[in-house]
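Request: Mind sharing a record?
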Amino acid sequence: MDIRDIAAKSGYGVGTVSRVINDQPNVSDRARERILAVMAELGYEPNSNARYLKMRSQTPVAVFVMGVGNRMFDDILGPLQAALAREDEELVVTYLNGDVDEVRAAVDYQQARHPKGMVFLGGELESFRASFHEIETPAVLVTADASQLGFANLSSVTIDNVAAARSAVGHLLERGHRRIGIVGGNRASGQIGELRLRGAEQALREHGIELDYERDYEPCDFIEIGGYEATRRLLERTGDLTAVFALGDVVAFGALRAIVDRGLSAPGDVSLVGFDDTAFSQYAVPRITTIRQDAARLAERAAKLLLGALRDGSPATHELVDFELVERESVRSL
């Protein structure tokens, strides 16, 4: 028998049970009484030496950031750190390359550092589905929806990526564009790229257009060079495009350079829409029309969800925050 059995029987998360066992103060009286009653009922006796060592070695909140140089996550990280600091909570940040399994990395980190909680900025749902059951602390996944995973200690906060992408492509269609290329992400089920592609497909289909993936889509990582190379290949292959939808602003920055290097202008020859509204998008030439994810709001809600789980034993919660299409200078009407 271990604390997972106590969690299942009591109805509280593993992280809450762990805090009761370790006699930590950040648990509601109701949760503490219920968990202690279940422990007594099941005859559970924790190892006091192990508990002491764990309490001595516990570290601040661990934040795992997917992708080095992801500007959207950088925009979230600052407000997240500030929100936790106001509650006297510290965090330690770990940046992970895009090919690293973030949940396995978190499991290894947990074994070595015993963080009190975790925040994941980005992540692949398949990784969570496969390995998150090994995570014992409360955690929040930001910019992806974990509601279908069913973990009692994993909350999430994100936007409706499908609806947001549908809005972005719908804007191009309203401006008269019919030959629209798409760059960024990949088509793997459940990933951010796939969700945004799904929204783009919906918008096109509403106007009687089927997205031809072989002709009009180029996958790439969410980095500038990825956007540059993907857009270069797309423009070489498909010369009649009048617009490009980049699945992230960082991809759009690379796409803008590729358009110019081909001797074209944006939006004169090729209109461009990004996604995220990172800080740099309003300083590009032209300023990039994009979907705004409110980084400060995402950070605020992530901190609130994590603190609720840590201090009150709040159950896993999954929230959607609003998005907004921000019209700037990179789209022209046909």
Summary: The CA atoms of residues 10 and 35 lie 6 Å apart. The radius of gyration is 23 Å.
